[in-house]
Specification:
Blueprint lengths: L1 E5 L2 H17 L5 E3 L7 H12 L9 E3 L2 E3 L10 H10 L9 E2 L8 H14 L5 E4 L21 E4 L2 H7 L11 E4 L2 H5 L3 E6 L5 H9 L17 E6 L10 E2 L1
Parallel strand pairs: 1-10, 1-11, 2-3, 2-6, 3-5, 6-9, 9-10
Antiparallel strand pairs: 4-8, 7-8
């Protein structure tokens, strides 16, 4: 585990984006797993800025979605796919055939899990996974108590996450279920990049780093990964010590 702290969210976004680009550069046709959400949005903006300046070529990259709300897909404003289409896929002009993403509107969500796992296997595994951190310690939609042995699966959404997730929608939504990559799938990624910002995440960051590894705090399981890097802004890092600052 490596921890990097930036003075500002902009610094964190740039540094984490540079780290991902460097890692993706070393493999032919790499597979990137991007999280939706507020924390990685700046990282994607840094990608787009480089792309628009002809400083980034993503034409041989493949993408696999991290998670999606059940009952939603890219046609639903506020869905995970909707945000990534707007922040990442469309600005980078990614071809649809290079993207595999859970369709939460599909009749059989279990088949979506199988399709996603097959896509990952066919592309040699996930090279870099970009993840965020929930205030209850969830990673993707792996909520507290989720078995670390699970692969892609349909998940029950914790009430804390249901409440927090309402910010992505103009009207209140029923988001009691989701479809997600499991912790076992994520742990097979070659590299995991966690991006966290904001004072409201400081306590869960402290717990992630200091508490015992437990499925009751799913993010702690990532500490067992051989290439796990955490990027924090100063507000998110205010309760920890001993990290690399830039």
């Amino acid at each position: 585990m490596e921890i990097f702290i930036g003075d500002t969210y902009q610094a964190v976004s740039k540094q984490s984006a540079d780290a991902v680009i460097q890692l993706m550069h070393y493999i032919k046709s790499p597979l990137l797993c991007p999280a939706s959400g507020d924390s990685p949005a700046g990282l994607y903006k840094a990608f787009v800025d480089k792309f628009n300046k002809n400083q980034l070529d993503t034409s041989d990259w493949y993408f696999v979605g991290l998670d999606e709300w059940a009952g939603m897909n890219g046609s639903d404003e506020g869905s995970c796919r909707f945000h990534l289409d707007n922040q990442l896929f469309n600005p980078l002009q990614i071809k649809k055939e290079r993207i595999c993403f859970f369709d939460g509107r599909a009749k059989n969500l279990e088949l979506e899990c199988i399709k996603t796992e097959k896509f990952i296997a066919e592309h040699g595994g996930i090279h870099v996974a970009i993840v965020g951190l929930g205030t209850n310690g969830h990673v993707a939609m792996n909520e507290p108590g989720t078995s670390p042995a699970l692969r892609s699966h349909v998940a029950a959404i914790d009430p804390v996450t249901q409440q927090a997730g309402q910010k992505y929608f103009k009207e209140a939504k029923q988001i009691s279920q989701g479809i997600t990559l499991g912790l076992a799938t994520l742990m097979e990624a070659r590299h995991i990049i966690l991006v966290v910002n904001g004072a409201h995440k400081a306590e869960i960051v402290r717990r992630l780093i200091n508490e015992e590894i437990s499925e009751q705090l799913p993010a702690t399981l990532l500490r067992r990964h051989p290439s796990f890097k955490i990027y924090l802004d100063a507000e998110a890092a205010q309760l920890i010590n001993g990290a690399t600052k830039y």
